[in-house]
Amino acid sequence: MPPKPRPIQRFAAAVSKCSPSAVEYGKCVVADYNSVHKDKCVKEFLKLKDCYLAASKGSK
What we know:
Layout lengths: L6 H10 L2 H13 L10 H17 L2
Helix pairs in contact: 1-3, 2-3
């Protein structure tokens, strides 16, 4: 039986599948980084979060 993957390994695999969403979120934050505030990029963040969750469920 193969060893169970460590949480950080599962997270790394999920992150690697979500780079387009991460780029979109990063661009939103950097676009006006001097005035970053809560919920400024909520739409992009939620897309990234959903991608991470979907990718991590698939790697179990």
